[in-house]
Write a structure and sequence with these properties.
single chain, Ferritin, 4 helices, elongated
Length: 169
């Protein structure tokens, strides 16, 4: 049903959004277990948004078979899918400003990826869909930027530990 270039692009898009949903859910669960409900709820909303994006891609795909790519066959611009927040960027005491900033970086990374695909494709349908996805990511980034502007600064010492680590002697 799809030409090979479009099919591979859609396989990447499915993986990108599935990875984003999974990672945001992991982040939400982690923040919840560390009693950081505000950030947990934010990451939960981001997981739901990624799930909606995934549904949009799946609607385009329909019943068509996409190539089954092995993890090393994905052609991302970086080491991981664009909307996969690094675990190293996470801290159990992170504030909303930091959480929204991470999500904003993800939206920009996804937008860059989709624009990259559109710029290098010779297939008009791949260009059209990749451009549409990039434009959607740009809108999401703009919404996050508006949220960020309304947030107060995170606490200065939020990452300082209250207690020294207790190590067995």
């Amino acid at each position: 049903m799809f030409n090979s270039e479009l099919a591979e692009f859609l396989a990447h898009s499915v993986e990108l959004e599935a990875e984003a949903r999974e990672r945001y859910q992991e982040l939400a669960d982690s923040m919840d277990s560390h009693n950081n409900p505000q950030v947990s709820e934010f990451f939960q909303r981001m997981a739901m948004e990624a799930s909606e994006h995934l549904s949009e891609v799946e609607l385009i795909v329909g019943s068509a078979a996409l190539p089954r790519l092995k993890p090393w066959e994905f052609n991302w611009l970086d080491a991981e899918a664009p909307e996969s927040t690094s675990y190293e960027a996470l801290h159990y005491r992170m504030g909303m400003r930091e959480a929204v900033s991470l999500a904003l970086e993800n939206e920009h990374a996804a937008q860059r990826y989709y624009r990259h695909v559109a710029a290098r494709s010779n297939d008009p349908e791949t260009v059209r869909i990749a451009t549409k996805f990039a434009d959607e990511e740009q809108l999401h980034a703009a919404a996050l930027e508006r949220i960020l502007q309304q947030l107060p600064p995170d606490a200065v010492h939020a990452r300082l530990e209250d207690d020294e680590p207790h190590l067995p002697e």
